[in-house]
Design goal:
The protein is mainly α. Helices cover about 80% and strands about 0% of the residues. The chain has three helices and no strands.
Length: about 110
């Protein structure tokens, strides 16, 4: 009976993870972030080429996008909570797979 509960929990967890990844992919999130980065790079290349044609002095820092620093107390709290969830999830999954291993090997 214990093995069935563990198997059911693992299957539900995997189903939820699969659904999350599937819907993220279907919504085009990864393609959007990649395209956005590409567009910024293409704009910088265009500006660089125009500056070379016009004979302006070239500085690399003018073409590299400066990343904003969003670190504050709330973002640090979110990062800490995320790390705690990740650690907990990893411990839970390790426990589940140990129990599955024990259930399979004990028969």
């Amino acid at each position: 009976m214990k093995g069935k509960k563990i198997f059911r929990l693992v299957m539900v967890t995997l189903l939820i993870l699969f659904a999350t990844l599937y819907f993220t992919q279907a919504a085009g999130y990864f393609e959007y972030t990649t395209r956005r980065t590409n567009t910024l790079t293409e704009d910088a290349i265009t500006r660089f080429e125009e500056d070379i044609k016009s004979g302006k002095k070239i500085k690399a820092k003018d073409y590299i996008k400066k990343e904003n620093n969003y670190h504050n107390n709330l973002s640090r709290l979110g990062s800490g909570v995320s790390s705690a969830i990740e650690s907990s999830f990893q411990h839970i999954m390790n426990f589940i797979f140990k129990e599955i291993n024990n259930a399979v090997n004990s028969d």
